[in-house]
Amino acid sequence: MVNIMGEKVANDIFVVRQEMRPGWTCNVVLVFGEDKIGVVDTGYENTGEDYVFPLVLEQGRRLDEVSIIVNTHRDGDHIRGNAVFKERTGAPVVIHELEMEAVPTADAKLGDSVTLGDRVFKVIHTPGHRPGAVCLYDEGSKLLLTADSVCGTRENLIRMDKSIYIDSLKRLLELDVEMMIMSHPFGPPGKDVLRGDEARQMIEASLEIALNLK
Ligand SMILES: [Zn+2]
Fold this sequence. Notes:
This protein is an alpha/beta fold. The chain has a single domain (4-211), classed as Metallo-beta-lactamase, Chain A (4-Layer Sandwich), CATH 3.60.15.10. Helix content is 23%, strand content 30%. It has 5 helices and 13 strands. A 7-stranded mixed β-sheet has the order 1-2-3-4-5-6-7, with helices on one face. A 6-stranded mixed β-sheet has the order 8-9-10-11-12-13. Strand 11 (143-147), helix 4 (162-172) and strand 12 form a beta-alpha-beta unit. The longest helix has 15 residues, at 197-211. The mean pLDDT is 96. Bound molecules: zinc ion (ZN). Zinc ion (ZN) binds at residues 26, 75, 77-78, 148, 183-184.
């Protein structure tokens, strides 16, 4: 198996990518704090053992430093690793309350904010792809994790009424964003880490695509 190690995108943040099919990846985001580690999404059953845990250990850290695991929404490529992550780290899985029933491996519901590593992220409810989909926003560094909530050219991922998705995108456009991390390399940019103006352009492009849908 090809082991694509993580990309360090900030001092304390790694994006760990797993290939789902040629040219298409899903990722897990790790936030390394002084003495605790936050995890966003868990990928597939093998994602922890094959991709994430080796990276944590390679950083000289321990798996039991993982203090919390956030699921951004219910889909398989974001939650199927939950059981393994929980077993190996001892950390609880938290998810938006509207996704809890669909994800039996979740332990608790997300509040208005969540601490990952040494960062406090605001939880922004962004339905459209899924009813309880969330984005995480660190106001201090202007970092936004959007998972699948901004899906650009993949309009088939808008699984709810498009007006709900559009409303979510408009609220994201109110944020000041320096870096945006998505769970997949959505088009138009075709990559999952966007910096500076690229973030706003992606949200605006997604809005435009949605507005033009019948
Ligand atoms: Zn996904």
